[in-house]
Amino acid sequence: MHPRSLILLAVLAASACGPSSTVDEGTGVIQELDTSEAGITAFVREGRYKDWLAEPGVHETRAPHGSKVRVYFNDTAVQSLRAGNATHPVGSILVKELYESDGKTLRGHALDVKIAEGTGKDTWLFYEGFGPEYASNYYGRGHSTCHGCHASGRDYVTTALP
Ligand code: HEC
């Protein structure tokens, strides 16, 4: 096995245990997104997804224990969803803003990025973090906390294009 694969396996084993802060799955830069945990944290904090296609407004989440949300889609995800693809191409990125019940105060972000062609949870990198520190985030390829609910979507995407 290539040494880089061994490192990746070690990181996967470590990240499967739960939230952590500076993990890097080693998937590099995808569509200008540095997919390390620190890279995604910077990306969402700086709102670098804000000019993407978005749901028209903040709304109640369909997920339990959530509050209010708004989902954003990058161009790759938009084109793939529009085409009705069964699996989305590498570089599809979706961001969910997580709000307090007032629907105005931003608490954090969830993000999925498609990192490998094909099917299955391991073709996605999942991230969720809360401000102001974004110190104990969920981060990982096929993350165990995330893929279950998302398996009911089309290639793990559950939100329809606005
Ligand atoms: C209890 C079920 C559930 C779990 C667990 C879950 N999600 Fe979701 N997720 C949803 C639902 C439902 C939506 C649709 C938007 C909404 O109603 O909140 C969603 C939407 C999203 C979106 C917007 C794109 C899409 O697929 O609709 C992202 C990004 C996302 N979730 C990331 C995550 C991450 C990262 C985790 C793990 C930390 C996670 N989710 C865990 C239910 C879940």
TrEMBL record:
**What name does the UniProt record give this protein?**
Cytochrome P460
Domain Cytochrome P460 spans what residues? 49-157
Q: Which organism is it from?
A: Archangium gephyra
Q: Give the matching Gene3D superfamilies.
A: Cytochrome P460 (3.50.70.20)
Q: Which Pfam families match?
A: Cytochrome_P460
| PROSITE patterns from the UniProt entry | PROKAR_LIPOPROTEIN
Could you tell me which InterPro entries the record lists for this protein?
Answer: Cytochrome_P460, Cytochrome_P460_sp
